[in-house]
Write a structure and sequence with these properties.
Strand content: under 5%
Shape: rod-shaped
Structural class: mainly alpha
């Protein structure tokens, strides 16, 4: 038994899908909360030492945040949200990289201090 095909069904479904897509895009709210979260992540990355230890990630976050703010002013809310989310991730990467670099530096300094102390103990033991 062959299925019954109705003429124009594909066209009707395509039209409904397109209408839904357009209606969905029109109802995207401004991502003000996401922009605020992303800005906070940028501030955190900067205070963690992102400029010194993760300048590429931090710069990427700043550029994406600027683009998100431009998209907001042009009322391109979906693009603004996506850019703000990307900026947040880049800022979090910069903060984590900076913290890891600082921890590594502190561990190296502690290791050097331990080495010096061991040498002094060895010298006094002789």
């Amino acid at each position: 038994m062959t299925p019954i095909q109705y003429p124009g069904t594909a066209l009707t479904l395509a039209s409904l899908a397109m209408a839904s897509l357009i209606a969905g895009c029109a109802s995207v709210p401004p991502p003000t909360e996401q922009l605020a979260v992303s800005k906070a992540a940028l501030n955190s990355a900067t205070s963690a030492g992102g400029n010194e230890y993760a300048p590429i990630s931090l710069r990427s976050a700043v550029l994406k945040m600027d683009a998100a703010e431009r998209a907001m002013t042009q009322q391109e809310y979906l693009q603004a949200r996506q850019l703000a989310e990307q900026a947040q991730v880049d800022a979090q990467l910069a903060a984590a990289t900076a913290r890891a670099a600082k921890a590594q530096k502190a561990a190296s300094e502690l290791g050097e201090s331990n080495r010096v102390l061991r040498e002094e103990i060895d010298r006094k033991a002789q």
